[in-house]
Amino acid sequence: xxxxxxxxxxxxxxxxxxxxxxxxxxxxxxxxxxxxxxxxxxxxxxxxxxxxxxxxxxxxxxxxxxxxxxxxxxxxxxxxxxxxxxxxxxxxxxxxxxxxxxxxxxxxxxxxxxxxxxxxxxxxxxxxxxxxxxxxxxxxxxxxxxxxxxxxxxxxxxxxxxxxxxxxxxxxxxxxxxxxxxxxxxxxxxxxxxxxxxxxxxxxxxxxxxxxxxxxxxxxxxxxxxxxxxxxxxxxxxxxxxxxxxxxxxxxxxxxxxxxx
Length: 261
What we know:
Layout (H helix, E strand, L loop, with lengths): L5 E9 L2 E6 L2 E7 L1 H10 L5 E5 L11 H10 L4 E4 L5 H9 L4 E4 L1 H5 L1 H11 L4 E9 L7 E5 L4 E6 H10 L4 E6 L11 H11 L4 E2 L6 H9 L5 E4 L1 H4 L5 H10 L13
Parallel strand pairs: 1-4, 1-12, 4-5, 5-6, 6-7, 7-10, 11-12
Antiparallel strand pairs: 1-2, 2-3, 7-8, 8-9
Helix pairs in contact: 1-2, 6-7
């Protein structure tokens, strides 16, 4: 049975504002997060990502006050990440209204943290986010990066995803550092490698620029959730346009809009 595909706009947050860059740098302002979240829900988004992209590097907690404002403005699920370092952080995110909590750098530095979070809050609540870039010396040719994509680890991304699945994580969110903001398509090999290795729901992230990129992520990458930022923030496509396109290609999409005559 084919899974139902979800569309997930992502709010990358810095200093309380939505920002977007290319390859994790050259960030530009993309608006108010509460206004953006409400607009995306209105446009048919199935869920939202909220990533405080500088929290880990700045060694601080996620901006939970902003999380609370965003979750209070929408009814769709919000996945919150950035600076999640402890069980107290996970609990704070959930208390601020998050449906799921994304752990990234801390998952690499302390894998047992993921196991403890799963035990306390349930696997379906815990997402492991993996920033990855090419490294031909590794089995999957993809290397895990931490600290907001700044620090290479030498770890194989697919093998790390498998380890996180074994610890009970309920979802994997791999982002291609190479693809981020470049609009040249998702890293299909990375996504497919993780899906095939873990069997977990996996989010395609980093690189959507054309409608066909969303289709490729489903058909070739085996992703179940399609995350995008730039193309939605700057009006290249609406969520409805992506859903209509995918439905027209025979993809089962959550709350697919009916084509207009």
